[in-house]
Design a protein that fits this description.
The chain is an alpha/beta fold. It has a single domain, classed as Periplasmic binding protein-like II (D-Maltodextrin-Binding Protein, domain 2), CATH 3.40.190. About 20% of the residues lie in helices and about 35% in strands. It contains 3 helices and 7 strands; from the N terminus they run ββαβαβαβββ. It has helices at about 30-40, 55-60, 70-75, and strands spanning about 1-15, 25-30, 45, 65-70, 90-95, 100, 105. Strand 2 (about 25-30), helix 1 (about 30-40) and strand 3 form a beta-alpha-beta unit. It is globular.
Length: about 110
């Protein structure tokens, strides 16, 4: 069993986002479900590994990112942004219970009858 979670994710951008209209066409580094949300809000999601984010933001390949605040220090993204807007956030808590069965780990909901 493991528990994965992180602090609230925030929208960090090189330009202020004060209204949904400010997101129109803005290139935001986002993946998975977050990319779908970013797209639905009018921004253009840019998928890339987190390890490429610093360079992409520095060079203008992306103009913003959706990530937890701890990424500003750990991935040094704070060097790219001049401010922090705490109004746009999401949360994450992913609880996975893994059971070892026949040499493989599978979540309990995917296992057959006991």
């Amino acid at each position: 069993m493991y528990l994965h979670g992180h602090g609230p994710g925030l929208l960090h951008s090189k330009t202020p986002v004060r209204a949904l209209e400010d997101l129109k066409g803005l290139k935001i580094r986002a993946t998975g479900t977050t990319a779908k949300i970013v797209s639905a809000l009018g921004a253009a999601p840019v998928a890339m590994p987190m390890s490429d984010s610093y360079d992409a933001l520095s060079r203008g390949v992306a103009q913003g990112i959706v990530c937890p605040t701890e990424s500003l220090q750990g991935w040094k993204l704070g060097e790219v942004f001049q401010g922090l807007d705490l109004r746009h956030e999401y949360g994450c808590l992913d609880n996975q219970e893994l059971i070892r069965q026949r040499g493989t780990c599978r979540p309990r909901r995917l296992q057959g009858p006991a």
